[in-house]
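Suppose you are handed a protein chain with no further information: no name, no annotation, nothing but its sequence. What can you learn? This example shows the usual starting point.
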Amino acid sequence: WGLCCDPVGNKVLSCDGSGMILLWAVAWEQEGQAALELVSRNQAPGGAAIFSVDWSASGLIALGAADNSVSLLQLEKTSSRGDGFDNFDGGEGEEGAEEGRARR
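A reasonable first move is to predict its three-dimensional structure. Written in structure tokens, the prediction is:
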């Protein structure tokens, strides 16, 4: 489980018990409420949970698993949504973050 928010780019990364990493973007804000739109869904290597995200230029996500292993994934910088990260390195849709794209 994990949740990390981008304080500048209005993005949120969440990780659930099934090991899916979800990247959300704020779709709209009105009167103190906001709606999130799912931007990307990827499988975390080994069902790991998010414990740190670098929202700056590097876009690194650090993941920790129950076996004490650590994986690093990288968000892909795109321009389709402005100044934030929109996707995981090489991953789109349901394919997920494959073990080959994760650096340990």
